[in-house]
Amino acid sequence: MRLEQSLPLLGLLLCAVGIPAQEDEEREGEFLVEISGTTVTITCPFEDEGIRWELSGKADDTSERKLVIKDHDSTPANLSCSSGSKKRQLYLNARVCANCEELDALTVAGIICADLLITLGVLILVYYCSKNRKGRASAAGDRRPRGHKAQRPPPVPNPDYEPIRKGQREVYAGLEHRGF
Fold it and tell me: Less Cβ around it within 10 Å: N or C end of the chain?
């Protein structure tokens, strides 16, 4: 009975220990790409010394972990960094802009909040303006007294639409019912 209770706990423990090891392996194989204006900075996933970079088949003269490409023209490029026998490749298709502004999350949140507050202010302004105009517009357009005790006269009877009375059935007796 104790074995049945401890097996799920053992499985959970093995999963928890296995996850960090997998994350470290994945982290080792990822490039870090940073774009600022027309400058692209790429960090090699290897932490060893003597890293060699190749940009579209041509060897680069830097041996640092970071490769900085200034005035990148947004053309796709094949990059690779190698350290000893290990080699990683990256297809770079970065769109850069010389006149673009970088916005952080706080600035974007501020713009959205300001937009919502302005919209709410306009909504309240329109509501109060239309509420005040409602009473004046109806009083100016209609000159009949509007009170709670004013009653409407009954509608004028139309002789073309009078109901059939019991004694007048002979007028309609000549009409036969047709089935469609």
Answer: C
What the block records as the tokens of 99 is 């006149």
As a whole number of angstroms, the distance between CA 77 and CA 69 comes to: 11
As to burial, measured by CB atoms within 10 angstroms (0-12 exposed, 13-18 middle, 19+ buried), residue 81 is: buried
Q: Let me know: does 87 contact 54? Beta carbons within 8 Å.
A: no
Query: Bridge partners of 82?
Result: 52, 87
- CA neighbours closer than 13 Å in the CB half-sphere of residue 75: 7
Q: Over the stretch 107-130, which tens digit does the pLDDT of each residue have?
A: 999 999 999 999 999 999 999 998
- The pair of structure tokens assigned to 84 is 């000893």
- Sign of the torsion angle spanned by Cα atoms 14, 19, 24, 26: positive
N-term to C-term CA, the chain: 82
What length does the chain have? 180
Q: Give percent above pLDDT 90 in the chain.
A: 13
Give me the half-sphere count of Cα atoms (radius 13 Å) on the Cβ side of residue 56. 6
Counting DSSP H helices and E strands in the chain, the numbers are: 2, 7
